[in-house]
Amino acid sequence: MKDTEKKLLEKNTAPTSMRILVYDFLSKQPVALSLTEIEAHFYKADRVTIYRTLKTFEEKGIVHGIQENNTTKYILCHDGCDEQTHKDWHLHFYCKLCKQTTCREDFKIPEKAAHAYRIDEIRLFAKGICEHCLQEGLQ
């Protein structure tokens, strides 16, 4: 059994051909991508099938969706996410110059806090200029 199939089965997700293809594609992406950007890679695939795949992945804790203006961008979750809780406790950073969205693991929200309620999801989003664009002098 391939590694991708195993990961999907561990998340209670049937490893269909499209799911394997989308998972493998996303696993190689350093930035979050929109449905349109993902669809462009699979030019012969049905948009609805890709959308349903992403929604299933989101429900199963395989990807998290990042709201950016009026668009959702998708990136693989860390292994700690599941159907109940996305452990997406870090900053999502959008560069206004290169227009890329990345997960910034160096900026985390403490997961363990003493309170009498359960937090299932936090969305932390920032806009600015990434280190690459700053180094290139594009600011």
Overview of the molecule:
The protein is of the alpha+beta class. The protein has one domain (3-135): Winged helix-like DNA-binding domain superfamily/Winged helix DNA-binding domain (Arc Repressor Mutant, subunit A), CATH 1.10.10. Helices cover 32% and strands 23% of the residues. The chain is built from five helices and six strands, in the order H-H-E-H-H-E-E-E-E-E-H. It has helices spanning 3-10, 17-27, 35-41, 47-59, 131-135, and strands at 33-34, 63-68, 71-76, 90-95, 101-108, 125-128. A hairpin with a 5-residue loop joins strand 4 (90-95) and strand 5.
CATH class group: Mainly Alpha
Characterize the largest beta sheet: strand count, sense, and whether it forms a barrel: 3 strands, antiparallel
Rg over CA atoms: 16 Å
Number of helical segments with 4 or more residues? 5
CATH superfamily: Winged helix-like DNA-binding domain superfamily/Winged helix DNA-binding domain
Order of helices and strands: HHEHHEEEEEH
Total beta strands: 6
- CATH topology (fold) name: Arc Repressor Mutant, subunit A
Work out the count of structural domains. 1
Report the portion of residues in β strands: 15-25%
| Low-confidence region ranges | none
Please name the CATH architecture. Orthogonal Bundle
Strand-pairing-aware structural class: alpha+beta
The N- and C-terminal alpha carbons lie at a distance of 47 Å
What is the 3D form?
A: globular
- Spatially, the strands of the biggest sheet line up as 1-3-2
Helix share of residues? 25-40%
